[in-house]
Every structure is written in structure tokens, then in C-alpha cells.
């Protein structure tokens, strides 16, 4: 059993569409099943369209310095948005890709240097509705907004503090999906 799981991640971008330069803010809820000796590291990573590379946007330590107490822990994880140069980059195999192509974004949770959970999103940038049909030839960033898909959660099995764990299963993973919650606050629930 995992000593800690991500119980929920909610994107705090409000009901309005986020502009390209707006920070990306996640509300993260951890469920710590047993006290842990070390802090955790959370990373926000952007993967440009058609690129094999990743761009770390932000990294934070989470804990009581050091360690985490048992129980629920809720915190906001705020990241700067991807640079426009990363959005405008074309993939090596296509001249048609650019800022309005689908890219990737994920939050990675690590303990003891090992990733135990990843919450990923497809991210796309699109014009305001009035420009969707006839977009300008050059990107008009004042009329482009960011849209994130529903999250996709991948969990990895790692050794925790006091486990005499058979590491045969280390690195194994399990995927789950999310669904919109039944309340109207725009939150999404993680399915286990």
C-alpha cells in the first residue's frame, strides 16, 4: 500500500478561459497514510508539440521540513506558464506545427527521488470564439487562451520509508482517469 497518494488535483483557473500569460495554479490534496521522514518534490513540466524534450516550469518542496505528518494536506502549486518561444517552436518533422497545436503538461510527485504519481493534461491554445473561424496569419497573443483537458493520472509503485518491500514491482504503474464531480464547483474527482 502506498504511504501517500494524491487524493485530488483541481485547476484553479476560474470559470473564465485562461490567457497565455496567466500562471497555472493547481490545488493539490495529498492523503498521507503514514508519517514520512522526507519532504516531497512536486514538478510542473511542459512538453511542446512534436518535441521529445520537456521543459520544467516549476519545482517545489512540500512538507513539514523535513517530513510529512499523517493526514490530509492541501496546498496550491503555482507555476509560470510556458514561454511563448516554447509555444511557437516548430517540431523538427513538420513546418505546420506551432502555438495552436496540442501539447502536454503534467505534475509529477516524487518521494525519495522516485516518482510515485503523475497527473497529466493535454493543453491547447485557441483563439477567442470570434477569431476561431478566421484566425490571423500571425499569432495574436491577446486573443489566445489556454485550455486543459481532463487529467490523466498514472501511479508508480515506489519503496517508502519503512518498507521492506520486494522491489520486483518497483516501477510498475497503474493508470486511473478522472471525471467531473457531481457538485457544480468545477472540481474534478480522481478515480482510484
TrEMBL record:
Domain of life the protein comes from: Eukaryota
Pfam families the UniProt entry points to: ASF1_hist_chap (PF04729)
Principal location listed in the UniProt entry: nucleus
Acidic residues compositional bias, start-end: 183-192
InterPro entries referenced in this protein's UniProt entry, alphabetically: ASF1-like (IPR006818), ASF1-like_sf (IPR036747)
Similarity annotation: Belongs to the ASF1 family.
Descriptive protein name: Histone chaperone ASF1
Top-level taxonomy: Eukaryota, Sar, Alveolata, Dinophyceae, Suessiales
Amino acid at each position: 500500500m502506498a504511504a501517500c497518494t494524491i487524493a485530488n488535483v483541481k485547476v484553479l483557473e476560474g470559470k473564465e478561459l485562461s490567457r497565455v500569460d496567466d500562471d497555472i495554479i493547481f490545488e493539490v490534496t495529498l492523503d498521507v497514510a503514514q508519517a514520512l521522514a522526507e519532504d516531497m518534490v512536486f514538478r510542473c513540466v511542459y512538453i511542446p508539440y512534436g518535441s521529445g524534450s520537456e521543459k520544467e516550469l516549476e519545482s517545489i518542496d512540500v512538507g513539514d521540513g523535513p517530513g510529512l505528518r499523517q493526514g490530509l494536506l492541501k496546498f496550491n502549486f503555482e507555476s509560470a506558464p510556458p514561454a511563448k518561444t516554447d509555444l511557437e517552436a516548430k517540431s523538427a518533422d513538420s513546418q505546420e506545427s506551432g502555438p495552436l497545436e496540442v501539447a502536454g503538461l503534467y505534475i509529477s510527485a516524487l518521494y525519495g527521488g522516485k516518482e510515485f504519481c503523475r497527473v497529466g493534461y493535454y493543453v491547447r491554445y485557441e483563439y477567442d470564439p470570434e477569431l476561431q473561424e478566421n484566425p490571423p496569419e500571425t499569432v495574436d497573443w491577446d486573443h489566445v487562451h489556454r485550455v486543459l483537458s481532463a487529467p490523466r493520472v498514472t501511479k508508480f509503485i515506489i519503496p517508502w520509508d519503512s518498507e521492506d518491500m520486494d522491489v520486483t514491482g518497483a516501477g510498475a504503474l497503474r493508470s486511473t482517469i478522472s471525471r467531473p464531480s457531481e457538485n457544480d464547483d468545477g472540481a474534478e474527482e480522481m478515480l482510484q
